[in-house]
Design a protein that fits this description.
about 20% strand, about 170 residues, five-stranded parallel sheet, globular, alpha/beta, about 45% helix
């Protein structure tokens, strides 16, 4: 994968190598996807609405497909990058749009999986407040983002687990 100096998903090389890259660099990606899907299932109502914001290739909608189908829920995947949309392999409706500008309907669950960290810092609070205002009673907004390693022994352990996971995937 040819990683550009200025990382962007609006790059064919990044989009082509995304699946391999994300699992190599984030060895906990599948575990986190499963955890987010598990939590989300508890908030999806019959005929509900689910947003996957920053859908990339569709891992979240794939993880929720059985639940959505069983409950007749609609999944709307929002992805700004045309390059990533071309490689989308999820389920539900795919909308190529800027998540910050998108007009959201009231929803049961909105998921921002490794998404908010790529938004301009100045837009994050208003974006999240806007989503919060559209949560249906009993619904949820799930934000899962990577953070800087903290201090203390647990941070050291988590860092070592990540490095061990990267080595296990063949990353040098």
């Amino acid at each position: 994968m040819n990683i550009p100096t200025d990382w962007t998903f609006k790059n064919a090389s990044v989009a082509d190598g995304f699946e391999k890259h994300v699992r190599e660099q984030l060895p906990w990606y599948e575990l986190a996807t499963g955890a987010v899907a598990h939590v989300a299932r508890h908030y999806i109502s019959e005929k509900g609405l689910i947003y996957d914001i920053g859908a990339s290739t569709g891992n979240i909608s794939r993880a929720l497909s059985d639940t959505a189908q069983a409950r007749g829920a609609r999944i709307v995947n929002i992805e700004p990058s045309a390059e990533m949309c071309e490689r989308f392999n999820g389920v539900g409706e795919l909308v190529q749009a800027d998540a910050i500008e998108y007009e959201y309907e009231p929803f049961d669950v909105a998921i921002c999986f490794l998404t908010v960290m790529f938004m301009p810092i100045k837009d994050r609070v208003n974006f999240l407040h806007g989503l919060y205002r559209n949560i249906k009673p009993g619904g949820a907004l799930i934000v899962f983002d990577k953070t800087e390693v903290g201090v203390g022994y647990i941070s050291t352990v988590m860092h070592r687990l990540t490095i061990a996971g990267k080595v296990a995937t063949g990353c040098d």
